[in-house]
Design the sequence.
């Protein structure tokens, strides 16, 4: 997240927002301003570690779960770096996934396969594919950079019990599985409450809801449950976040190929 | 005294046991033909066990891992074996990582053959794919720099290749008498081997340049005075290069090897090719198409049967809850234009803790006097059911 630039841009946006009544701002400009406010709210988390339980539910209601640990490092002038380590199912224990996201251009991704002790560079082009057999696509869980979408303000609406907005965003990347996403955001803390995803044929595909927002000592808000429902298949996936911690003693060395090989 | 020691060891180990994860599996192998060299058995079922204890601390910058491994129940006594796959400590500091102990290192990018991967000895009684490795004692230092990782390996002890015995499949007419192994160097297993590697990436390109000097992992088989076939381990050095480029749904790969051996001629070999993935077909499934060209300038003398061959394959990943996967491929010899062999690998998870794997190899028309020619009656189908805890 471009700290300096974003901060400067956000100031511009803030003044833009304040001048709404004075100057006719287009829905696109207003949408972009919202995205920048959301990005600014995210800026400065430094790093984050968390334990995640993923609960997959098929259309017959049968559940299976996966557990993973996710570490994220905020980068000053680029997208975040993240390291995901799988603990279960047990047959994939120790498998780890390293991702360097970029605001512009493809992300860099590597996979560590413990059985062969092999680090494999993988293509990040398949962003619309399912993550670990879940209803989350890779693009849903990767860091959300402002540049990845174009935006449009739709309307004001109450969100998370306070003032909020509904906007649409359109993925810039043609490889995205979506034509548009409808996003509900509260305008006090810039938290996302809900996202409705429309597929390439502009048919409603999935709904993602963020539940149980809590504010952490560094001022950041985090939901402890993400619920994704696929309307076309009837399947759903819940992500339960636990032990979220910020400001750990982590550096880029904890997010390189050597860290990937050390993952257990 | 012994009993006391044992109970102390048990008292120390038992609380740790709960911390172990691991795999226990039953493997069934079926051979449609009797072996060409007197191996009568056409069915084999073995038990494999691989517990794992690992502990990480200090932000995962200190890691201790212990992975013993055993296979039991084979007709081939050489295949019943125990190994320590991993018993290592890794520490990470701002500019370097240090790994000490018994461990496993992989170098390479291609799928059909692992040409430059040299640090660990192949455990050839496990599988003919060469992907199972014996634990290698090492001190491994990785120096982390802006221009990539510079690695140094000190390999103080050599591991002899585990080869099939008298009652085992996947061997030539005469079983190798592994107890008679010979070395050209007086220090034998204690010859101190060294390796270096520089690896880095820029944008879409990843590379690794490696050097190894020490005991040749590939033994030369010779008949001794008493007519026994014995493995002879000579000295060697090699230079390896691995390259990979990611472009959209393409992966372009290459491994290049120059190897010099004591009393045998030098040679060059390479494996180069691509993998293209048709992504997100239907409900999230991917289909990959693989092509690799394998070349060895020793020609037929290499004995691999793949000295100038193509590997053509397809990989199906369902990306479903059960992680269902399938890989099917074959080698085609360029000189004869015949299919050398065909291979299938498929796997799927059953519930949360079980995994079913099916694997099969058919030997078709291999070049004469090659490895595949020697094992041409060892077509097999293998089913493994494993429990993970």
Sequence:
């Amino acid at each position: 997240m471009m700290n300096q630039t974003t901060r400067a841009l956000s100031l511009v946006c803030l003044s833009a927002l304040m001048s709404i009544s004075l100057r006719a701002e287009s829905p696109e400009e207003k949408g972009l301003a919202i995205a920048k406010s959301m990005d600014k709210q995210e800026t400065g988390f430094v790093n984050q570690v968390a334990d995640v339980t993923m609960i997959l539910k098929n259309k017959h209601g049968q559940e299976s779960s996966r557990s993973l640990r996710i570490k994220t490092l905020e980068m000053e002038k680029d997208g975040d770096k993240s390291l995901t380590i799988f603990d279960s199912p047990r047959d994939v224990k120790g498998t780890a996934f390293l991702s360097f996201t970029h605001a512009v251009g493809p992300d860099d991704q590597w996979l560590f396969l413990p059985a062969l002790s092999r680090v494999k560079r993988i293509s990040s082009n398949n962003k619309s594919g399912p993550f670990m057999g879940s209803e989350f696509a890779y693009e849903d869980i990767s860091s959300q950079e402002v540049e990845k979408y174009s935006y449009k303000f739709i309307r004001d609406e109450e969100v998370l019990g306070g003032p909020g907005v509904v906007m649409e965003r359109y993925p810039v990347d043609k490889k995205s599985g979506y034509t548009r996403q409808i996003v509900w955001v509260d305008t006090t803390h810039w938290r996302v409450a809900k996202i409705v995803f429309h597929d390439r044929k502009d048919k409603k595909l999935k709904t993602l809801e963020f539940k149980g927002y809590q504010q952490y000592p560094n001022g950041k808000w985090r939901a402890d449950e993400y619920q994704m429902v696929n309307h076309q298949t009837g399947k759903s996936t819940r992500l339960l976040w636990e032990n979220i911690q910020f400001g750990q003693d982590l550096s880029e060395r904890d997010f390189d190929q050597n860290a990937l090989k050390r993952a257990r | 005294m012994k009993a006391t020691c044992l109970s102390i060891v048990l008292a120390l180990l038992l609380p740790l046991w709960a911390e172990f994860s691991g795999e226990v599996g039953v493997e069934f192998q079926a051979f449609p033909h009797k072996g060409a060299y007197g191996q009568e058995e056409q069915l084999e079922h073995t038990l494999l066990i691989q517990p794992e204890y690992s502990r990480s601390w200090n932000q995962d910058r200190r890691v201790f891992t212990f992975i013993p491994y055993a296979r039991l129940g084979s007709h081939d006594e050489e295949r019943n074996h125990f190994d320590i796959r991993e018993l290592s400590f890794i520490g990470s500091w701002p500019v370097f990582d240090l790994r000490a102990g018994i461990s496993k290192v992989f170098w390479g990018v291609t799928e059909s053959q692992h040409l430059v991967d040299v640090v660990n000895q192949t455990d050839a009684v496990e599988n003919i794919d060469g992907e199972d490795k014996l634990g290698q004692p090492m001190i491994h230092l990785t120096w982390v720099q802006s221009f990539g990782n510079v690695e140094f390996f000190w390999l103080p002890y050599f591991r002899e290749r585990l080869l099939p015995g008298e009652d085992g499949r996947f061997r030539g007419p005469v079983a190798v008498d592994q107890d008679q192994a010979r070395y050209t160097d007086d220090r034998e297993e204690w010859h101190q081997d060294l390796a270096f590697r520089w690896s880095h990436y820029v944008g879409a390109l990843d590379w690794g340049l490696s050097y190894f000097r020490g005991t040749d992992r590939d033994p030369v088989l010779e008949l001794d005075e008493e007519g026994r076939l014995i493995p002879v381990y000579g000295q060697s050095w090699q230079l390896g290069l691995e390259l990979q480029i990611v472009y959209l749904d393409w992966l372009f790969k290459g491994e290049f090897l120059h190897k010099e051996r004591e009393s045998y001629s030098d040679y060059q070999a390479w494996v180069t090719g691509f993998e293209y993935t048709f992504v997100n077909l239907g409900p999230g499934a991917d289909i990959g198409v693989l092509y690799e060209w394998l070349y060895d300038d020793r020609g037929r003398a290499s004995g691999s049967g793949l000295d100038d061959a193509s590997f053509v394959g397809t990989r199906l990943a369902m990306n479903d809850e059960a992680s269902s996967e399938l890989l099917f491929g074959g080698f085609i010899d360029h000189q004869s234009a015949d299919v050398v062999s065909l291979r299938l690998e498929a796997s799927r998870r059953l519930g949360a803790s079980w995994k079913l794997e099916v694997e099969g190899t058919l030997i078709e028309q291999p070049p004469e006097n090659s490895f595949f020619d020697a094992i041409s009656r060892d077509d097999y189908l293998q089913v493994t059911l494993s429990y993970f805890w």
In short: The CA atoms of residues 340 and 366 of chain B lie 4 Å apart. The longest strand of chain B covers residues 264-281.
